[in-house]
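Final report, Chapter 2: Outcomes

The project's central promise was a pipeline that accepts a single protein chain and returns its three-dimensional structure in a standardized token representation, suitable for archiving and comparison. That pipeline is now operational. To close this chapter, we reproduce one record exactly as it appears in the project archive, with the input sequence first and the structure output second.
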Amino acid sequence: MLRPDPEFTDAALLATRGLYGTAASGKSAEKTVAPPGLPAPTGLDLLCQLPLDPDEDKRTAVLVPEHLLKPGVDCEVRTRAPREVQYPTDVPGLDPAFVRVTWDDANLDKDARDEAADSFRTWLEGEDGQKEFSEDGFGKAGDATPVSSDELDDTLAKYRNASGPGRVLFLLDSSGSMEDKWQGPSGAPGMLKQSLGGLGSKDTYGVWAVAETDKGSYTELLAFKSHKNADAGGRDRQGRAGEGRRGGSVQGAHQGLGLHGAQGRRRPAPPADRLRHGQ
């Protein structure tokens, strides 16, 4: 049985809540869904990966939203093993919410717009609309047990601690060619700050700026050790000179991780850790 990464998808986090139940730790449960490598970030990624090995696809149950099992999923391999849908009773449910999108100064034909939106909502929440929704794989949560944000935070904390402390080395391309991709919340430092939320005081991590300088192919911005997240806050503007030559720095990163020992797990890569040159 496989499940996507609960760090990335709500459905996987809810399934994990059901897997752990009232256990004080998620270690035993994680052994039942541990993939051979890193977990797929989403249910769609998982369903697209499995058909690459038809035998594994046939013998694997997946914890994913039902609508992803419908035909038409855009995968490289279109032929997938047939699956029977099961509805676990110990997994909290997600009911789709009706959200009407509006914008400022959209006053033209306001009454007609309001009438159309209200009519669509009435149909969607009625018997005919729910039937259409269910046929597309969006069944109602029904009697599923509700769950609070505190309970989900607790589940996520257990997931992060289930396999021991993580070890992550962030490589930030700080070469001149990346100048326009360094600024703002979607730049490398901004994404790094977002990623730190997934790391705790027991995790070990460091930050290197990757660019060729007269001192080498990288600059250490944050030493590889355990940190408080605030320690990294002032380090994202350093080491920005030269053109990137990532071969030496990546080799050094592997050597550095080896020198720090093989204990602990390599946590699935946070967003900043998945950056690639030119993206």
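Archive annotation: The chain is about 35% helix and 10% strand.
This record, like all others produced under the grant, will remain available to the consortium after the project formally closes.
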